[in-house]
Amino acid sequence: MKRLLIGFCLVSLILISACVVHDTSIASRSLKFEQIESGTNQPSNQIAIKWRVLHPPVDYFLEAAKTFKLELENLSDGELTVEIIVVNETQIPNSGVIAQEAEEMILNGTTDMMQIGISNLVEYNLDLLILTSPYMFTSDEHVDLVVDGEIGDELLREINNSKLKALAFTFSGGFETIVSKRSDIKKLSDLKGQRALVYGPDFGILANELGMEIVPAIKKDNWTKEIPDSLAAGIEGDLIDAWEQTAQDAKGMLDQGVSKSIINSNHRVWFTVLAINREFFDGLSTEQQHIVEQAAKKAAIAERHAISSDGKKALSQYSYLENELSKEDIELLKDVKEKAIATRLKNVDPAMLKKIVESSP
User: Fold this and answer.
1) pLDDT per residue over 305-318, tens digit each?
2) Phi then psi for 21, rounded to 5 degrees?
3) Beta strand pairing status for 80-87 and 47-53?
């Protein structure tokens, strides 16, 4: 799927997909939803799961919901179905509100099922930090081995919240690239001295190691600068030179002439978790619970693979991106990985960290 959006409308959607907290006020606005799939003329004994698609990438999340619905109905012989409700994109608020509201909707039972950004679940399982740490994953195959196997199942089980059950890992954009407004950027070392918009410590570690000037979007830890508060403000005010983006969004920025080059660094991964309200899940029979888990895994795998495939296609027209990172770049990313482990991941379970690192194919 190719996104070709005009001007800075693209920028605003990119900000939303980054899941960055700017505003925590939920009561001040009302979202409008469109019911696009429902169990009309449902048998009286059919159980309908409400799945809300609340934030970008809406198209991929919607396809995941449809895949889940088809698999669920097939495995349950129609006993279980899904009511898919998608937010009207023109009503999408800032991403911080989305992240908080997504979690609250699951916890209070307003909806049965939805995708929640990993950053909002770290408080329930600190080991989730490992998944977003720089250069933790070496490939799509490595991601699959971790999140679809025993390691992923353990991480999901250990999300310690009595009101939700985590079912599977999905992408919220997938692997990240580094985008620059300069046209002469071909390797990581070329980014030295550029002003990098940084949304959090993970990219901050990499930007610092590259010798970039960190311009944090949000005040974090010992960072002091708070401007700009968005990618759009940073670009419009000529306050930044570079930032991180998923492949599809990065290509869109190139096509619109907002940016001039991309480093296909794949330096970290944006994840979401497909979750269901615990009370609803516990009210299902054991067989129905197993079916829900099976369908969720299949939908998650399909979504992640679609995002990865489309990302590679989106960047394939830029010939220099087809080349692998230089040995120098790879060694630098390994150093960044070790620094992140020593600082950002110092309180995670060392056994879990070791399993994820050693699972690389």
Assistant:
1) 999 998 888 777 66
2) -80, 120
3) parallel
